[in-house]
Design brief:
With about 375 residues, this protein is mainly α. It has 2 domains: about 160 residues, no CATH class; about 160 residues. It has 14 helices and no strands. Helix 3 packs across helix 7. It is globular, with a radius of gyration of 27 Å.
Length: about 375
């Protein structure tokens, strides 16, 4: 008996130790492998239909599916990133002259500033304030350009990771079911909870891809077009930035377009301000309430707080891919605690009331 226990402990120790060494060894590829699994689960129905149409030729169906992802997703994304970087550099170089023009030329803002109580006292220091503001903007512009220059290395890493992801996807599509069964076999949970976790992962992944990415793409495109019509430089850059900001509940794209609307109004460009108010505020701002319920099922929705912190936490930990990974982790966090509550329900105490003892019952309860 003791010998058997010692053998099991030794085996578990070796499993943990060797697995830790292996995962540490391939840690730079884990994100590419995870994204390959994510996209494989999403396009699996398409792969199955292609395989059935080709009389069970899984390898050929996998090749066609991977090529479709390259043509429809990765190629347009690469072109978009190139445009965003070029426009961001142009915007960074033009910020300082624009601010100087905005400060020196009389605008509607100047009339409001002259009405301030202490404007005459500040007026002698006007040139110093303008100089410091110009230096600050110049520093920010230089920082932006230097940061964008660092994208060269990130671009090379992204290309290499994409190649790894596509290569892994090919095998996931052809033999993903076998790998999944192996993983579930080694997971010490009953079948019901394993399927529950798997379904939750799949549903939230599809909901995140459909809800977050499609709505973000739609809002970013509409707002980018609005910026172009309003005459704002770099509409592709601002549209892409608003597509990312659309994940933030309540505020979303307004974090970008509302200050732009205010600046246009102060400059006297009321037609541009109206364009932003209609396209960004009225149309893009309501897409989330109209489109999201159709794209995302009720069963996969989470509270806004979980969406917010899951997304922000995912961005801080995983970078831009955290937009997808963060909500998935948050959903799995909720699911695993639900499983815990169901499994140990006999041992957990019942929560009858959270009202303080000295608090009087509500009027309707007193009547009952």
């Amino acid at each position: 008996m003791i010998k058997g226990n010692f053998s099991n402990i030794t085996l578990v120790t070796l499993v943990v130790l060797i697995s830790g060494v292996f995962l540490t060894m391939i840690h730079q590829f884990l994100m590419a492998i995870f994204m390959a699994g994510l996209f494989s689960a999403t396009v699996k129905p398409l792969h199955t239909k292609l395989s059935d149409a080709m009389n069970g030729r899984d390898n050929l169906a996998s090749i066609i599916t991977v090529l479709a992802i390259i043509a429809l997703v990765l190629t347009p994304l690469s072109i978009l990133i190139t445009l965003v970087i070029s426009q961001a550099i142009a915007i960074g170089q033009s910020v300082t002259p624009w601010v100087q023009t905005f400060i020196h030329e009389p605008t509607i803002a100047s009339a409001y500033l002259e009405r301030l109580p202490y404007y005459q006292d500040i007026l002698p220091y006007r040139d110093i304030i303008i100089q410091k503001a110009g230096e600050l903007v110049g520093t920010l512009s230089s920082f932006l350009i230097d940061s964008l220059s660092g994208f060269t290395k990130l671009t090379i890493d992204a290309i290499f990771s994409s190649i790894i992801m596509l290569y892994v996807m090919f095998y996931f599509l052809t033999m993903g079911d076998v790998l999944l069964k192996k993983i579930l076999y080694f997971l010490p949970l009953d079948d019901h909870n394993e399927i529950r976790l798997l379904n939750r992962f799949t549903s939230v992944t599809k909901a995140t891809l459909k809800g977050t990415l499609i709505i973000g793409l739609m809002q970013g495109s509409i707002c980018g077009i609005a910026f172009a019509f309003a005459g704002i430089e770099g509409p592709v850059f601002w549209g892409s930035l608003m597509a990312v900001m659309s994940i933030v509940p309540a505020f979303g794209t307004a974090i970008i377009w509302f200050p732009a609307l205010c600046i246009l109004a102060l400059l006297g460009n009321f037609s541009g301000a109206v364009i932003l108010a209609i396209l960004c505020g009225a149309i893009a701002g309501n897409l989330d309430n109209i489109v999201r319920p159709r794209l995302v099922g009720k069963d996969t929705e989470m509270h806004d707080l979980f969406v917010l912190f899951g997304t922000l936490g995912g961005l801080s930990m995983f970078g831009l891919l955290g937009i997808i990974i963060g909500p998935i982790v948050a959903a799995l966090f909720i699911t695993i605690w639900e499983i815990y509550g169901d499994t140990f329900s006999d041992y957990l105490p019942k929560v009858r009331s959270i009202r303080p003892k000295n608090e009087a019952p509500a009027a309707d309860e007193a009547e009952q």
